[in-house]
């Protein structure tokens, strides 16, 4: 496969995954801001949404304050934000068009149909109800594309590069959600386990579709260390860091066997996977959650660079 084709497939998957992630973050933020202040406290949920999206500096350079109107415009519809939902879908469609013959009919219909339907939303929604429908549509569009890829693609290098994009992006997203929870959402004076803590952690679980899974696995009330365990170390949780790296190792090994050569990407992915397998929540909390996640995000970025250098240049 040409490196340009692999690069298009990789980034097509990343942009679709990123759009869904932004929609999930905004949906949870909208839910939190409608709760009484006694439950959500005085923290600025819209500011935390921008921080979780990883574009706080770009936002601050464009808008004077983080409020509902500014954040929804910046993360959903702004053409000045390279990672807005609109730009993610447009870039995904551009990458898909470049490798049209590498996609199945169902995949092309899913991404092209999403791009065409995006135009009917114009420059934003006129009400909160319409905005929530838009966010649900974004998530459904991403699931439709991902499902079409899973059900119709031949299991060859095209599929494997696409999956690499999904899991690199997903790992980064989950890590950033956890990091922001510890350093922005919960005010310093609020005790862990209080009502504010409960609603914010539940919101984090909803943002990764893990609230039901949490109760299935632990059968306990919402507790921060158990949620961190679920989203970091549990292989059976599809959006956990461990699950993402389990899949990254598998697909990188498939590519290595197909091309007859291992490289730095395979070695780095295995090293991160081994560290997650050998970690325990007690050790992570002793080390510091922020430090652990920051190291993981750096390692994940390095894996992205290694994949690019090894296959996509």
Structure characterization notes:
- It is a single chain.
- α3 packs antiparallel against α9 (157-185).
- The chain has 2 domains: 1-152, no CATH class; 155-313, no CATH class.
- The protein has helices at residues 3-33, 37-40, 45-52, 56-60, 68-77, 85-98, 105-118, 128-152, 157-185, 195-207, 211-218, 224-232, 241-259, 264-277, 281-287, 289-312.
- Residues 189-193 have low confidence and may be disordered.
- The longest helix is centred in the first third of the chain and has 31 residues, at 3-33.
- By secondary structure, the chain is mainly α.
Instruction: Assign a percent range to the helix content.
Output: over 70%
Oligomeric state: single chain
Main sheet properties: none
Total beta strand runs = 0
Query: Low-confidence parts lasting 5 or more residues at pLDDT below 50?
Result: 189-193
Give the averaged pLDDT, no decimals.
Answer: 88
Distance between the termini: 12 Å
> Structural class of the helix and strand makeup?
mainly alpha
The overall number of domains is: 2
Quote the beta fraction. Answer: under 5%
Order of helices and strands: HHHHHHHHHHHHHHHH
Computed CA radius of gyration, to the nearest angstrom: 19 Å
> Helical region count?
16
User: What is the general shape?
Assistant: globular
Secondary structure elements and pairings:
Elements: H1 3-33, H2 37-40, H3 45-52, H4 56-60, H5 68-77, H6 85-98, H7 105-118, H8 128-152, H9 157-185, H10 195-207, H11 211-218, H12 224-232, H13 241-259, H14 264-277, H15 281-287, H16 289-312
Helix pairs in contact: 1-3, 1-5, 1-6, 1-8, 1-9, 1-10, 3-9, 6-7, 7-8, 9-13, 9-16, 13-14, 14-16
